[in-house]
C-alpha cells in the first residue's frame, strides 16, 4: 500500500528521478538567495501566509475589524488633534480624507515591518526543529499583511464615495507603490528580525523606531510643508514617495511625484538587497541562538 | 555501492563560558564593542593565557566524527545526554551548520526531530496537515494525494474541520504523527523523542519505523534506549563526549556503550557542568554507590542506592536545604528527596564537604535509568543547581527483579507490593451485597 503511494508521489516529484545530492558544510561569506530552493518551498510560503492571516483574524474578538479600526481610529485622533486643533493644512481636501489616505499605506508599512521583524522570534521553535528556507518566515509576514491593506483600501474607497472624490488616472501607479512598501518593509524587517533573534532588546527598539519613522513621512502633514531645498533628501525615505503618490492618485491633491517615487523605488531595492544579504549571512546561526 | 550518507570529520563548537560570552542585547553589544580594545590589550600582555582562555570557552559538541551509511541500512546512534547526538542530528537535518567537516547526502531526506512542528491551535486539523506537511518539505499535491490515507491513519477523520485547539493532546499527537509517517523520503532521520506518548502510540511509531525499514529505506535513528536500537537497527555508532567511540554491529556497540562507565569511573566531575545559583557553594563531584559504599555501575533492583556529593563551600552556610531530584530519561520528574523532609540539617564551614543521600529499597525497572539533578538552597535563595549530573541505572539480577516489566509505558519505578484477597473486614462485603 505504502509502496504504491510512494511510486505515485515519485511521479509527481520531478526531482526524484535524479538522485538528489546535497553537501552540508560550513557556509562562508555572503549568500544571496537560493531561488530554486525557495521555489520548491512555495507551497510552504502560501500556507504560512494563510496561517498568518487566519490566526490574526481568528484570535481577535472583532475579527477582520482590526485592519479597519486601526487606521480609522488613528485618523479620528489625527483629525481632531491636527485637523481641528492645530488647523493643519491638507492640500485642499478634508483633513480626515487627507490623513486616512496616508494612514492606509502607513499602516501596511508599519505593521509589516513589525510583523517581519518579529517573524523569527515568534517562530523560534520551528527554527530549531526542522529545516526549511528561513526566508519564508519574513516573506510570509509581508504577504499576509496585504490582506489588511486590501480591506483598508475598501474602507478608503468608501470614504472617497462619501466625500465624493474620484481617483485620478494615477491610480495605475498604486501597484508599484505597494511593491515599494513591500520591499522597504521586507528589507528593514529582515535586518531587524535577524538581529532580534540574537539580541533581546531589538524588539523594544523596533516599536520605537516605527513611531519615529511616522513623523519622517508625510502622514499627518503634507509634504509641501518640508522646505524645498530639503525635499530631495526627505524623499530618500521611500514612504514619502509612496504616501504622496497615494494622495496624487486617489485625491488628486498634486501631480504624481515621479521623482520621489523613483528615488523611493531605488532606495527600496537597495534596502531589500541589504536586508537579504544580512538575513542570509546570519541565517546559519539562527537555530543555534534561537 | 556508494554510501547515501557520508560524514567526514564533522565538528561543531559552541562558545560557552562567562568572559567572552556573546552579548545577548544590543546595549550589551555596544558595551562589549567599546571595551574590546581594553580586553585585547590585556590579552596581548598575556598571550599564552589568552590562547588557553579562548580554547576553554569553546565547547566541542561534536569532534571529528566520520561514518558512512549505506542504502537500506538502519543505523542507530547511541550515547548519553551531551554525547553529541542531538548536535549530529541537527547538522544532518541542516538545522544548524557544522564548524568544520562535511556531510554528503544522496537522496531525499526527511528528518523528524519532533512531530507537529508548526501546528497552530487556531487552524483546523486539515489546515494543520497541510501546514505541517509543507514545513516538513512535502508539496501540496503530494499531500492532496495522501490526504485520505493520513486522515485514516490518524483516526481523527471526524474532527478534521475542527480547530486543533479543541483536540485532546492525544488526538493532536496522532494527527501530527500521521503526517510524519506519510513523508516519503529515501532517507529518514528520526529522534527518539518521537517514541514518547502512550504505550499504543509508541508501538505504532515503532511498527511504522520497522515497516519503513523493510521497504528498503535508509534510516538513521538516534536514541539512548538500547532496547529500541537493538530491535530496529542493523548497525550502530556510539558517541561519547562529542567523539565517535565505536562503529559497527549493534551488539558490540551496545557493549561499548555499557562499558563506558567502568572505563571512566563512576565519579562525575561537575566543575564544568552548566549550573545556576549564586555560587556560595558548589557541587563539584557526585557518585552513585551501593549500600556498602562501593561504586555502582548498575543498581541491583530492590537494594539501597547512595548518592554521594562533594561540595566546595566558599562561604559559611547555615541550615542548608539540599535536594536530589530524580527524573526519567524523557525528562519527567519522578521524585524529589530533600534533607529537610528527613529531619537532617546541614551547616557548612568554608572548605570541602562530602554528604550522602540514601534511598532504601529502590526498585527501578530493569533497563531504565533515573537522571540525578542536585539542588541546594538556604532560606529561599538558590545556592547551586546542576541538572542531569549522573544517572542511576538498573539491571535485573535475581528472580524477583526479572519479573519486573521493562516496558517504559509502565513507569520507571516499581513499588514494594503485596497482593491478596481481603478478608480483614467481611462487613464491607456484606454491606455491598446488601445494596446490590
Largest sheet of chain B: 7 strands, mixed
Helix content of chain A: 55-70%
User: Which percent band covers the strand fraction of chain A?
Assistant: under 5%
Alpha carbon gyration radius of chain B? 26 Å
Q: Strand tally of chain A, please?
A: 1
- In the CATH classification, which architecture of the domain at 268-410 in chain B applies? Distorted Sandwich
Can you walk me through this structure?
- The complex is a heterodimer of chains A (290) and B (436).
- Chain A is built from 13 helices and one strand.
- Chain A has 290 residues and is an all-alpha fold.
- Chain A has one domain.
- In chain A, helix 3 crosses helix 7 and helix 4 crosses helix 7.
- Chain A is globular and about 65 Å long.
- The two termini of chain A are 40 Å apart.
- In chain B, a hairpin with a 2-residue loop joins strand 19 and strand 20.
- The model of chain B has no long low-confidence stretch (mean pLDDT 81).
- Among the domains of chain B are: 135 residues, P-loop containing nucleotide triphosphate hydrolases (Rossmann fold, 3-Layer(aba) Sandwich); 143 residues, Distorted Sandwich (Coagulation Factor XIII, Chain A, domain 1), CATH 2.70.50.60.
- In chain B, strands 11, 13, 15, 16, 17, 19 and 20 form a seven-stranded mixed sheet that branches. A six-stranded mixed sheet of chain B has the order 5-6-7-3-8-9, with helices on both faces.
- Chain B has 436 residues and is an alpha+beta fold.
- Classes of the chains: A mainly alpha (290), B alpha+beta (436).
- The interface between A and B is large, with 52 and 58 residues.
Amino acid at each position: 500500500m505504502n509502496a504504491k503511494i510512494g511510486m505515485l508521489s515519485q511521479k509527481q516529484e520531478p526531482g526524484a528521478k535524479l538522485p538528489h545530492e546535497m553537501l552540508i558544510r560550513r557556509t562562508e561569506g555572503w549568500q544571496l538567495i537560493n531561488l530554486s530552493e525557495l521555489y520548491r518551498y512555495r507551497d510552504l510560503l502560501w500556507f504560512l501566509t494563510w496561517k498568518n492571516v487566519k490566526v490574526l483574524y481568528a484570535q481577535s474578538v472583532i475579527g477582520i475589524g482590526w485592519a479597519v479600526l486601526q487606521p480609522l481610529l488613528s485618523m479620528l485622533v489625527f483629525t481632531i488633534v491636527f485637523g481641528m486643533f492645530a488647523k493643519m493644512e491638507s492640500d485642499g481636501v478634508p483633513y480626515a480624507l487627507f490623513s486616512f489616505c496616508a494612514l492606509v499605506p502607513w499602516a501596511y508599512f508599519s505593521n509589516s515591518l513589525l510583523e517581519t521583524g518579529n517573524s523569527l522570534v515568534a517562530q523560534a521553535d520551528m527554527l530549531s526543529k526542522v529545516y526549511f528556507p528561513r526566508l519564508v518566515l519574513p516573506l510570509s509576514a509581508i504577504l499576509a499583511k496585504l490582506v489588511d491593506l486590501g480591506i483598508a483600501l475598501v474602507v478608503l474607497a468608501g470614504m472617497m464615495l462619501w466625500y465624493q472624490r474620484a481617483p485620478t488616472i494615477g491610480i495605475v501607479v498604486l501597484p508599484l507603490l505597494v511593491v515599494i512598501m513591500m520591499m522597504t518593509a521586507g528589507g528593514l524587517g529582515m535586518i531587524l528580525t535577524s538581529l532580534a533573534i540574537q539580541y533581546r532588546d531589538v524588539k523594544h527598539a523596533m516599536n520605537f523606531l516605527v513611531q519615529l519613522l511616522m513623523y519622517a513621512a508625510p502622514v499627518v502633514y503634507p509634504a509641501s510643508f518640508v522646505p524645498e531645498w530639503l525635499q530631495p533628501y526627505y524623499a530618500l525615505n521611500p514612504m514619502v514617495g509612496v504616501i504622496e503618490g497615494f494622495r496624487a492618485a486617489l485625491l488628486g491633491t498634486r501631480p504624481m511625484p515621479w521623482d520621489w517615487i523613483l528615488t523611493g523605488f531605488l532606495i527600496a531595492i537597495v534596502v531589500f538587497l541589504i536586508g537579504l544579504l544580512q538575513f542570509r549571512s546570519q541565517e546559519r546561526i539562527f537555530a543555534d541562538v534561537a | 555501492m556508494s554510501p547515501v550518507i557520508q560524514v567526514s570529520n564533522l565538528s561543531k563548537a559552541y562558545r560557552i563560558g562567562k568572559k567572552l560570552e556573546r552579548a545577548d542585547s544590543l546595549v550589551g553589544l555596544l558595551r562589549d564593542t567599546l571595551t574590546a580594545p581594553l580586553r585585547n590589550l590585556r590579552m596581548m600582555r598575556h598571550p599564552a593565557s589568552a590562547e588557553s582562555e579562548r580554547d576553554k570557552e569553546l565547547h566541542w559538541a561534536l569532534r571529528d566524527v566520520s561514518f558512512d551509511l549505506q542504502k537500506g541500512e538502519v543505523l542507530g546512534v547511541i550515547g548519553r545526554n551531551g554525547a553529541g547526538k542531538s548536535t549530529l542530528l541537527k547538522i544532518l537535518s541542516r538545522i544548524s551548520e557544522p564548524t568544520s567537516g562535511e556531510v554528503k547526502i544522496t537522496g531525499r531526506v526527511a528528518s523528524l526531530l519532533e512531530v507537529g512542528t508548526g501546528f497552530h491551535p487556531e487552524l483546523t486539523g486539515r489546515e494543520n496537515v497541510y501546514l505541517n506537511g509543507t514545513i516538513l518539505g512535502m508539496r501540496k499535491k503530494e499531500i492532496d494525494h495522501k490526504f485520505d490515507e493520513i486522515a485514516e491513519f490518524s483516526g481523527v477523520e471526524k474532527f478534521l474541520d475542527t480547530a486543533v485547539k479543541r483536540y485532546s493532546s492525544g488526538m493532536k499527537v496522532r494527527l501530527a504523527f500521521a503526517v510524519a509517517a506519510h513523508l516519503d523520503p529515501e532517507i529518514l532521520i528520526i529522534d527518539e523523542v518521537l517514541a514518547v506518548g502512550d504505550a499504543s502510540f509508541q508501538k505504532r511509531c515503532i511498527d511504522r519505523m520497522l515497516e519503513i525499514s523493510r521497504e528498503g529505506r535508509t534510516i538513521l535513528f538516534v536514541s539512548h534506549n538500547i532496547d529500541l536500537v537493538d530491535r530496529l537497527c542493523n548497525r550502530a555508532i556510539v558517541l561519547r563526549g562529542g567523539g565517535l567511540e565505536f562503529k559497527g554491529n549493534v551488539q558490540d556497540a551496545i557493549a561499548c556503550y555499557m562499558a563506558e562507565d567502568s572505563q571512566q569511573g563512576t565519579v562525575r566531575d561537575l566543575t564544568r557542568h552548566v549550573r545556576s545559583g549564586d555560587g556560595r557553594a558548589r557541587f563539584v563531584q557526585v557518585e552513585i554507590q551501593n549500600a556498602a559504599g562501593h561504586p555502582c555501575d548498575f543498581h541491583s533492583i530492590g537494594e539501597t542506592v547512595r548518592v554521594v556529593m562533594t561540595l566546595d563551600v566558599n562561604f559559611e552556610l547555615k541550615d542548608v536545604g539540599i535536594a536530589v531530584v530524580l527524573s526519567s530519561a524523557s525528562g519527567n520528574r519522578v521524585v524529589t528527596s530533600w534533607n529537610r523532609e528527613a529531619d537532617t540539617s546541614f551547616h557548612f564551614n568554608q572548605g570541602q564537604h562530602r554528604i550522602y543521600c540514601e534511598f532504601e529499597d529502590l526498585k527501578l525497572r530493569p533497563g531504565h535509568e533515573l537522571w540525578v539533578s542536585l539542588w541546594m538552597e538556604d532560606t529561599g535563595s538558590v545556592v547551586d543547581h546542576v541538572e542531569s549530573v549522573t544517572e542511576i541505572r538498573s539491571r535485573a539480577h535475581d528472580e524477583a527483579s526479572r519479573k519486573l516489566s521493562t516496558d517504559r509505558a509502565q513507569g520507571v519505578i516499581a513499588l514494594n507490593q503485596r497482593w491478596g484477597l481481603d478478608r480483614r473486614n467481611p462487613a464491607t462485603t456484606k454491606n455491598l451485597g446488601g445494596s446490590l
